[in-house]
Structure formats: C-alpha cells, structure tokens
Amino acid sequence: MLRKKGTVFIIAGLILLAIAAGLVTYNVLEAKRAEIASRDALAQLTQVMGTEDWKDEINPDREMPTREIDGYLYIGTLEIPSLDLKLPIMEEWDYPRLRIAPCRYEGSAYKNNMIIAGHNYPAHFGGIRELPVGTKIRFTDVEGNVFDYTLEWIDVLKPYQTEEMSQGDWDLSLFTCTYDLSSRHVLRCVRDFAGAF
C-alpha cells in the first residue's frame, strides 16, 4: 500500500514538472515571438514616420496621428538608450496588441499625460523595473515630433489599483507587471524641454 502511494506521488510530481516545463517553454517562445513582431513593426513604422521639424505649438486637444502597420494603428516610437531599446507604440491597448508591442493605455503626448503599457517580455518592458531615477526616455510621434523625458519616480502598484495609474501630474508613465503578476511597476517621467537626450 505504501509503495503504491509512493508511485502515485512520483507520477504526480512528474506530471507537475512536465506542466511547469511546458509553461516555461511557452513563455520563452511567446517572448521571442513578441520580440520578432515588435522588431518587424518598428522597421515598417520607421519607414513611414515623418521627419518634420519640431513644432513650437501643438494643439493639446488634437488626436495623436497614426500610421497603420499590418492592420494595427501606431502613434510613434519609444526609446530608452540605457536599455538599448526602441519600440513601436500602438494607438490603444488590449491584451492581444500587448503581445505585439507596447500600447498607449490612455492620455496623449500633446497633453503631457500619456501612459504606456507593455508586457514584461525581455524585448519589451522587462528591463524597465531596474532603471534608475534620471534615466532619459524619448517618444517620437509618427509625424516626427520628439518628446524627451526624464525618469523621476517609480511606483509599485497592486494589479487592482487602476485609478492610481493616472494619478499625479506626470507627463509620461510607463508600466509593466511583475512575472508573478502580483504588482505593477510604474515609471513616472517629466518632460525635458531642454531636449538633453
């Protein structure tokens, strides 16, 4: 009887190990697929983005212009040089879009209240949790207008704290979840009008 229980536990343990290995493999493949998808979208977006000179006055109530790539609308690119990261940013977010590229969660670069969500894939926002205050970040809209920011604060929020995501007077916020989904790291940035990027 004792031997039979031991065999059952061994089989159950092997099944759990197989499931864990399957989940790890799935996550690795999903992250690689996301890296390829965002890299391809960035290459296409870069070709169709404008290169206009900075406009002194942009109407803050204006909708952010978009460019269509593979059936999805993009509003521009985000660069974080210290991570050697440049990503396309989709116009609006949902979970299927986040599997391709980071997305605008709400707000606008023109109103200085934009929030961008990204998965914690290594090629997306996986490294932003480790960025130090003072990090330089750049958003370029699809017309070529450049917005430079400096990281000033990092919030750690619980997944249910959605209202807190847009609280505060921050010009740009970037957020991603931890791997165990227990919290969100939110990088709070202020606009750098000197353009010291």
Molecular structure report:
- The protein is of the alpha+beta class and 197 residues long.
- The chain has helices spanning 2-48, 95-98, 162-165, and strands at 67-69, 72-80, 85-90, 103-106, 114-117, 136-141, 146-157, 172-177, 184-191.
- Strands 1, 2, 3, 4, 5, 6, 7, 8 and 9 form a nine-stranded mixed β-sheet that branches.
- The chain is elongated, with a radius of gyration of 20 Å.
- 28% of the residues are buried.
- The model has no long low-confidence stretch (mean pLDDT 85).
- Run of helices and strands: HEEEHEEEEHEE
The tally of strands reads 9
Cα-based radius of gyration, to the nearest Å: 20 Å
Tally of helical runs: 3
Shape: elongated
The oligomeric state of the chains shown is single chain
Fraction of residues in β-strands: 25-35%
Average pLDDT: 85
Q: Can you summarize the main beta sheet?
A: 9 strands, mixed
The amount of helix comes to: 25-40%
pLDDT under 50 segments (min length 5)? none
Distance between the termini: 70 Å
- Helix/strand class: alpha+beta
